[in-house]
From TrEMBL:
PROSITE patterns: NA_SOLUT_SYMP_3
Region of interest: Disordered: 661-694
Keyword Amino-acid biosynthesis: no
Signal peptide: none
Pfam families for this protein: SSF
Subcellular location: Membrane
Membrane topology (UniProt): Multi-pass membrane protein
GO cellular component: plasma membrane
Protein name: Urea active transporter
Transmembrane regions listed in the UniProt entry: 23-47, 67-83, 103-123, 144-166, 172-196, 267-289, 301-328, 365-391, 412-434, 440-462, 469-493, 583-604, 616-642
Transmembrane keyword on record: yes
Family: Belongs to the sodium:solute symporter (SSF) (TC 2.A.21) family.
Major subcellular location class: membrane
Length: 694
């Protein structure tokens, strides 16, 4: 496995006993999961009766009427990447490589989240009625391309969920002794329930609750670590980490130190991670669904703010947790004392759980149990709704019943939710029994997720890419990546096995080949017969369902819609183009700035200079990381409340005065709009329908 270079235990057979009972594990995974699910079901029904959000309508179920505001969008974006592996994996690479590991983990995520704002606003401008990425592919290239990209997206979703479940199940088992297979199958239960009922809006709301809870606990850990006498301060933590480097120097690191960005393993992981994550973002239909669900004014700021805020989570917690573990694993307070963590423990993602147990005992274990559960269920929800959208829109509505009604599509969405929850659990179980764990999937997943990066981006941004290029280049790219990955494993280690294919170098070569090779494939194939696609053709096919706006037009304004949103969907579609193009330029500038900052200007000079952190520099490094983490708490926790205060007030007033709706009809007198004009404001889709905006 990837951690095989860490060295063996010192001969002691110390076994770490789970600090919590199995009963606690089942209570969290099953009982709390169901409580959250039923709470979301209640909230979904409340929103229907107070602000007219009817999840029996497809546009509400799948895209939240394209009206989600910036705060909730930013929180949902952070949540989409707040996998259990974001915390478990960043701590893992920090333990293996030192301070460079968590930094490269974070830098491998934030640039492409921000870059997605470019794709999101481009889709808003060119095909505002879309529900999924695959609808765009089908309209531009036809059935064959649609099926190819459906396969690529489903592979992406499946490997992503397996990565989450493997890491989360191992952590929950370590904390409670709960059987790992029981955890694997029970984790999706609550997710499937609230996604089944609430659709994408329930996903947004649970994303918010889960992410807020997780970041609160992480902020607590960022303070609690320094109340431990053995740590005490950042200066003392520096001394502990320096001593750890002397005890167990890291091969490939400058002076063998954990305190340097000049780390061969770290930068190799950074290259692998940024390529793999571009694939995970661009080929994950849940990101497109969330972009389609955001109001036009919320797409760019939501993804930019969310992407930058996210950076602090793996950077801060990965560095802090791995530093404390490395510094204290030779002391009696560490769970594995007197031995080091084994390769299996590290690769299984147990660095963060052992950190929490060390600084806070059973309370720390409970905190890890909660954040692992929250993280995996929140991100699972996004994956489940993504796959259910593929099954309902791209399979059923496209190939089985073109005239499908709201009821038909919702029913098949429900089938998709149940099917994927069960299939993903079974697939993860199979991987566990063949010896695959978090470390293996974390390193190799890019080989399978990356082939569609550039062909998909070209589909949205480059009108010259030909149909043949769009179909052939990702398939050739996947074959190239797999061949390079397996060939490198065999050439370097003499065998193709779980261990050799999970090693760093084969995974880096395979991922890079998988990501980059489709570029020349696509360009060369396109040169034979380039297209000149007319973006206006996207608007010729009607995709959106009619929206029942009875409760809105009766006088109750949808507080999620701003007047700027209405302007962007004016009756003349050409009127909105300059504004959307301006947002596109803003998105491109932020995407470039984020990449240059997080991947070039900040880390590479430190790598090239072979700098080993001094005490003052390490203290500043950690202070900035902790402050950034607390800033993320504001973004994911308080900003959505501030930004969505109008709708919260509308719901509260409706409940307080009894002005609820029934069957989509207003039961009480019309409520005044936010502007005080007393005029109702229609939903975005309603305005699009009125103006023929397609």
């Amino acid at each position: 496995m990837l951690a095989k270079h860490l060295g063996r235990a010192d001969g002691s057979d110390v076994v770490v006993q789970p600090p919590l009972s199995q009963a606690v594990g089942y209570v969290v995974v099953v009982v709390i999961g169901l409580v959250i699910a039923f709470t979301m079901v209640f909230v979904t029904k409340l929103l229907k009766r107070t602000v007219g959000e009817d999840n029996k309508k497809t546009e509400m179920f799948m895209t939240a009427n394209r009206a989600v505001r910036t705060g909730l969008t930013a929180s949902a974006v952070v949540s989409s990447w707040l996998w259990s592996t974001a915390m478990l994996g960043s701590s893992l690479v920090g333990y293996v490589n030192g301070v460079s590991g968590p930094f490269w983990f974070a830098a491998g995520c934030s640039p492409m989240i921000v870059f997605f704002a470019v794709l999101g606003i481009s889709c808003k401008r060119k095909i505002p009625e879309a529900h999924t990425l695959l609808e765009i592919v089908r309209i531009r290239y036809g059935t064959t391309a649609h099926i190819v990209y459906m396969f690529l997206c489903l592979v992406n979703n499946l490997i992503a969920v397996a990565n989450m479940l493997l890491g989360a199940s191992a952590a929950i088992t370590a904390m409670t002794g709960m059987h790992i297979i029981a955890a694997t199958f029970l984790l999706p239960v609550g997710v499937a329930l609230y996604t089944f009922v609430g659709g994408i809006k329930a996903t947004f709301l649970t994303d918010y609750i889960h992410t807020f809870t997780i970041v609160i606990i992480l902020c607590y850990f960022s303070v609690k670590a320094f109340t431990l006498e053995e740590v005490g301060s950042l200066s003392n933590l520096y001394e502990l980490l320096q001593e750890a480097g002397r005890r167990n120097p890291v091969a490939g690191n400058e002076q063998g130190s954990y305190l340097t960005m000049t780390a061969k393993g770290g930068i190799l992981f950074g290259i692998l991670h940024i390529a793999a994550n571009f694939g995970l973002v661009i080929m994950d239909t849940s990101f497109f669904i969330k972009a389609f669900s955001a109001s036009p004014q919320a797409v760019v700021p939501g993804y930019v703010v969310g992407g930058i805020a996210y950076f602090a989570i793996p950077w801060c917690m990965g560095t802090l947790a791995s530093s404390v573990v490395l510094g204290l694993e030779n002391t009696p307070i560490f769970p594995t004392y007197p031995r080091r963590m084994t390769s299996a423990e590290v690769s299984g993602g147990l660095v963060l759980p052992y950190f929490a147990m060390t600084i806070a005992g059973k309370g720390g274990a409970a905190g890890i149990l909660i954040i692992t559960f929250m993280a995996v269920t929140s991100t699972l929800s996004a994956q489940v709704i993504a796959v259910s959208s593929i099954i309902s829109f791209d399979m059923y509505r496209t190939y089985f019943k073109r005239t499908a009604t709201d009821e038909d599509v919702i029913r098949w969405s429900h089938y998709g939710v149940i099917f994927f929850a069960l299939f993903a659990s079974a697939f993860s179980t199979m991987l566990h029994y063949v010896g695959v764990d978090l470390g293996w999937t974390l390193y190799m997943l890019g080989v399978l997720t990356c082939p569609g990066i550039f062909p998909t981006t070209f589909t949205i941004l480059w009108k010259r890419q030909s149909k043949a290029a769009a179909i052939i280049s990702p398939l050739l790219g996947m074959m190239t990546g797999i061949a390079t990955w397996l060939g490198s494993a065999y050439a370097l280690y003499g065998t193709v096995s779980i261990a050799s294919t999970g090693a760093t170098v084969p995974c880096v070569w395979g991922t890079v080949a998988s990501a980059i090779s489709p570029v020349p494939y696509s360009v060369i194939i396109t040169l034979f017969k380039p297209e000149n696609f007319d973006w206006a053709d996207f608007r010729k096919e009607r995709l959106a369902f009619e929206v029942d706006t009875a409760s809105i037009t009766s006088g109750r304004r949808s507080a999620s819609i701003t007047r700027e949103d209405i302007e962007l969907n004016d009756q003349d579609p050409n009127n909105s183009q300059p504004l959307l193009k301006r947002w596109g330029r803003v998105a491109a500038i932020w995407a470039l700035a984020t990449f240059l900052g997080h991947w070039v200007l900040w880390p590479l000079p430190m790598y090239a200079s072979k700098y080993v952190f001094g005490k003052g520099f390490f203290v500043a490094w950690m202070v900035i990381a902790i402050i950034w983490l607390w800033g993320t708490l504001f973004v994911v926790g308080f900003y959505p409340i501030i930004d969505g205060r109008d709708q919260l007030l509308s719901v509260w007033n409706a409940v307080r005065t009894g002005g609820l709706t029934k069957g989509g009809k207003a039961a009480g007198p019309a409520q005044a709009s936010d502007t005080g004009s007393g005029e109702a404001t229609p939903s975005v889709i309603e305005v699009e329908k009125a103006g023929g905006n397609r």
